[in-house]
Structures are given as structure tokens and as C-alpha cells.
Amino acid sequence: MKNFFTITETAFAAMLLASAVAVHAADEATERRLGIRAVANGDYSNAVNFFKSALALSGEDQEKWAANAVDLAAAKLRTGDLAGARELLAEFRSRFPARSAGLLPGEIMIAERKYDDAEKFFQSLAASAADPELSCQARYALALSRLHQNKFPAALADLEQLERENADLPSWAARAHLTRIYTLLASGDLKTAEELLKQDKYRKELPDRYRRLELALMLKRRQFDSFYRLWPEIAAEAGDRQDKLLYDLAVSGALQAAAAKQYDAAVRLLNDGFRFAGNDLERRNALRELINVDAVVDPERAADAIKRYLEFFPEANDRTELLLRGARLLASVKSYDRAIALFTQVTGDNRIPTEQRLGAAREAAVTAQAAGRPEVARRMYRYLIEQAETPDQRLEGNYLFGEYSFREKNFRQAANLLKTVADSGSNRADAARYRLLQSLVELKRYKEAEPVAEALRRSPVQTHATSADFYRALLLEKAGHSAEARSEYLKFLVAHPDSEYSPRALFSAAELAMELREYPAAVREFFEFAEKNPKSDSAPAALYQAMQSGYFARNAAETRRAIELLEKKYPESPVVIESRLQLADYLIRDADYDGALAQLAEVEKYPAAKSPETASELLYDHARIARLQRQDEDALKFLEQLLKEHPSNAFGAEAALSAGNLKADQGNYREALKFYERALTLGPAGRNAELTRGRIADARYNIYAETLDKNDLDQAAAIYRELADGSGNPQVMLQSLYKYGKCCELMDEREDALRAYEKLLYLAGDLQRRGIAPDPVWTSRGAYQAVLLNLKDGTPASARRALEDIRLYEELKLTGAGEDFARIKQEIKQRYNLEEK
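Structure for Tetratricopeptide repeat protein, as requested:
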């Protein structure tokens, strides 16, 4: 039943205490009385007007002003004017800081979704109130607050206690009893609700209230025919009096009738609902449903009828509603351009109240999205913000535009718009946080996302709180807290096994298990994911990672099962080949060459193995295996075949580099140089480019050693110097500094060599201070050469410099170096009679 069980204190009070509004009069007492009656009748718009008038007529009478201000704020709150209610409460408190505003502060807290604060307020008020009536009001409000949050057990307990403890206040006992029945209906406990109804505890005093609740029970049980047989008598008794519950019953019954295609009954009920409506919004809703029923056969014809009606009656007071209905009907049959034209008639007419124009803009934006007209959608969302007259309206505009921006993947704009709403405390704050959180994650602004997720976890909306639990785990993962993130993912899966986020949580938990080297758990969870989500795009990846985890767990059976499942369920997936190639790579690292060759043989059976990417990888792996088995000539043949058939492929540069290394190992540096230069041509950038340039320099250096051609030495020194100055890899810098120093020594540039070696020492110390272990081999060699160069001068000053170099090296506390610095240091001290500083 649409909106049937959305209840507030005043809505239920309207059901219990219905009365008519009297004729308007212009004195404070009469205006106040009319306001009170309007509230009792659920007519909050008129109540606001009456209380405003009473407030203005209060004069200097502080008691009257206080009473009217509180009631006006409460009426504003019922019409949705939260800001106005807060403003009046603030003014009341500034005038009467020691005086109670009754239930109003708690009601405002509820409107702000500060439910915990509201409940504490009502509990405190109930406990401290000297007036039994006020105490009952507070306890009743507490129960309704919990009912509003769907805390049915708590609400039922409150109502039962209120009824039991107030036998001497029969009106409150009756109200609590009937509201308890209503709560049972709302919670779905129809059996208990029926049992209480049958007790007839207050039926004699309130027979009409019982009949209404019985009608509600029938609708909850979808016993429409029984409901409709009793409805005419109930509707006739009510006459034209506004009645919230009867309105809800009529509209809910009409929706059931329409769903059952009982259109005559639906029309009757909607007309009754329109009569019982207590405000314009309810009347518009009834009229909209009525038009939908009338237009069920041909919505466009209904829209044409609305257009003709407006041509005859251009000043009709329902003109806006009819325009909107017509637009909606047109949109329902995808006549989008005509629908947008009607919506823009509303947005472009400044005589129409702002709220209605904003509503039309919202719907126009949605229609424009459906029509594929983003420029119109964006214009309408901007309209919502620019035309807003109240903070709440502006917040709504920001929220809707932000949500639209999120769907359009404009995450930066979405985050900017939604943050304003999330920080507002409005009733859209949680919904805004939900999209804001996702936007920040997409933008990789994880630190900003953390407090948003924590706030969203407290949302009364379960889907929002659930999503926040998931994102809490995800943010822990992004922050590098792998073990804690995995624990949170697993907790999430236990708490929310059927959540839309559960597949992602399971996959992430498995990945983290793999990262944490909990391989048996990773295997189990990857298989579980693939089994539960066979149609997911991530299912092949899960099996691929199950293969990896199975291998690392040294579980050959699970490794094989993962590959077999991939081949069986996803034969066309590229992951099938990739899994065998990866397994071959693992086996190569383990020196299981026969096992690796068996995997490569399986890959070669696939038609896709003939693709350049796979074929080149196969050749490269064969070359690796041959090289590791010391079959260098076979390895070179595979590499040369790869360079001949697939030189531009991803493995081309690596193949040339490997071929160069083979030639260098054979001492054929000129052939090696050719391969290295080709490798640099094929891969001028990337992870192997620096390595290749270093190998070119090594080849030039070795050729110089054979020919003493200074041109080769100069070229080697130039490359080493460039790598020493500009490499992003600290270890490459250390190695290059040492080799550059050796080149300088061969060129008799002693000072340049010494500067290179000593720079190497200082760089090693800096790396160690930054937590990076320097390469012990190149560091010790550089330090040794620096000491030897200093000692060649044979002066005490150069000896002291040599001792300083030894000191710098010893501070590094490296192990595994072959140079005997202790002996050299002792000889220096003895020869030059020096002491360490």
C-alpha cells in the first residue's frame, strides 16, 4: 500500500481526534482555536495561517506569544518547513530560556533524523514532567518516534507500557492501545493485531476507529473485496471531513483495485480519497492516480484531454497539476519531447509556486535523461539550485544534480555537490553520503571518504548502512591495512550474505588472503566466488587467481582444478591461456622445466596460440628454459625466431636484451652490442630501457678492453654518467657511479673518479637513512676504489680522506663485502701515525 504505513504523531492524532474547521474570526483566541482545530483535522497549511495570525495578535502578552509560537512552529514542521520551525524554536528559547517548548524540540530532532537525541529528549521530558498529560504526550511521542524508524518492538513495548500505566487517563490508554494495533499492522504482525481488535477493549467508546483499523487489516491482507463492501458506509459517515487515515485507506484501496483491474472501484476510491485529502499534496496525488486510471488505455489521449481542458479554463486552480499529469502520462509512453514541453510550461511560469516549479524541473530532468537529452537534464538540475528559495530546496537541487553527475560518471562534480548535502543534516544527508562515498572512492580520495563512511554506518536506512560497512573494509584495504580489511570483509559477508556488495566483498577478501599469503583460504574463497557468480565478468579472474593461490599453497590438485574449470566454463576467455602461461612461469622459477614445457605444449594446442602476443611469449619462455638448462644455442635460436617473426611485440625488446646477454656471456661483445642496440630501439622506454643502456655501456667498456679504442670508452663513460645522474632506480645509480669511476680512472681523470666513488658512498648512506638497503657489492667496491685513489697521493691529508671514506662505509654496516677495510685502516694509522676523529 503506497505510503500507507508512513505515520507521524499528528497523522495518528488526526485519525483519533477529527473535527471541522470553524468560520474565520480576527481575534487572538479565535485564531488560536481555529489553528488547534485545523491541526486536529490534519489541515496543517491552514493551521500555519491561523497560528501566524494568532501570533501577530498576541501583542505584548508573553504567555499568548509563547503558546502561539510553539504551535506555529509545530504546524510549520508538519508542512515540511523544518527551517521555519527551527527558527521559531530558536526565537522562543531566546525569549524564554528557562521555559519548556513541550514536544517541539524532539519533533524537530526527528525531522532532522537525530533519532537518538529525540528519544533522549522525550524520555527526559516524560520523566521530569509534573503534568501527567505532558508526560503521556512525551511517552507517546517517544513510541511514535520509534515507530517512525521502524523500531517496532521498542514502539510496541512503549505503547503497551503507556496503556498499562495510564488506566486513570482513559483517553491516553485508548490512544496507546489503538496505536499499538496500528504498529502491529505496520510491522506485519497481522495475527496479533487481529487478536487485539477482537478484544473490543475500546470499541464501545470508539467504534469508528475500530472499523478503520479493520479496514486497514483487510488491505494489509489484500482482501480488497471485503474491504470494498464495507467502504461505502465508512465513507458516507465521514462526509466531507478531511481525514488522514481514510485518505490513506482510499488511495491504498484504489491502488489494489487498479492492480486487479477493477477500474470503477479505483475511480470511486480515488474520488473519496480526494475528498478526504487534508492538504494539496494529497489532493494532487489522488488526482494524479485518478488520471492514471482514466488514461490506462491511452495516455496520450488523456494528455490531449488535459490540454483541451486547460485551453477552456486557463486560470483553473489545478492547472499546474494537470500540466504535470499530462507530462507524466506522455513520458510514460515515451513521448518525451511533448512531455518536456509540458514540464517547461510549469518551470517557465513564475506565477506558479516555487515548490511546484522545482518539482516540474525534477521530473523534466528525469524525462530528459530517458530521452537521451543530457543538455536539458543539466539545465533542469541547475534550475533546481538557482530557483531554490529555501535551504532545503537548494539542498535537494544539489543532491539531485549530484546524483545525476554520479550516474554520468562526473565524479568530481558529484562530490562537490553532494558534500554540501551530506554536511547539512537534512533528510537527504544519508542518501547524499551514499553517493558521495562512492564518488570519493572513484576519485581515489580515500582519506576524505573515511569519515563519510563512518557517518553513513549510523544511517537508519539499512541499504546505506550496509554499503558503509562494505566501504569501511574497502577503505582499510586502500589504506594498506590488509589484514584488518580482510577481517572486515569477512565480517561483512557474515552480516550481509545477500547484499549486492557481497560478491565484491568475497572477491576482495580472497585477494587479500592471497596478498597475506593465506593461500588455502584464498583458493577456497576464489572457488566460492566463481561458483556463486558464474556469470560475473570476474569469474574467470577468480579461477585464474585460484590457480595462482593453489600453486603457492603447493596444492597441485587445486591448481589443476582451477585451470580445468577455466577451460570448461570459459573456453573463449583469454585467461585460459594466461593461466597456463603463468603456471609455466612459476614452474620455470622452481626449475621444474619439464612441467613448464608441458604447460607450454598445452597452450600451443589452442588456436589463439598463433596470435603474435601468445606466440612471442611461447618463444620467449622456450628460450628462458633452454638458457636455464645451459642450452645457449637453442635459446639463441628461439630468441632470433622471435625477433624475426614478432619483433614489435611486447617481448621483442626483452628477446633482444636476452640475446645480447647470451652473446656477452660468450665474450662476443660486438654481437652483444648489436642486440642491445636493437633492444633499445624496440623498447626506448619502460622498465628495461635503463638496463639495456647499462648493458650497452658494459659492452662498449669490454670492447675498449679488447681494442683500447678510446671512442668506446668515451661512449661507455657518457652512458654511465647519464644513468648515475638521472636514473630513477637507486641501485642503478650506485652501479653506474662505480662503473663511471672506473672509466674515469682509465682516462686518467683521477679527481672525477674519486668524486664518483665518494658520491656513491654518500648516496648509499642517504638510501640507508631513507630505509632503502644499498647494494653491498657496488658500495663496497666503490669505497675500496675511493680508498685506493686517496692512498696513491701518499700524503697525510689524503690518508685522512681515505680514513673518512672507510668510516662512511663502516657506518653502513654492510655484510658480504670481500674488501679488508680493517687491515687497510690499521696500515694507514701505522704509516701516518694517525688517529680516527
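The radius of gyration is 41 Å.
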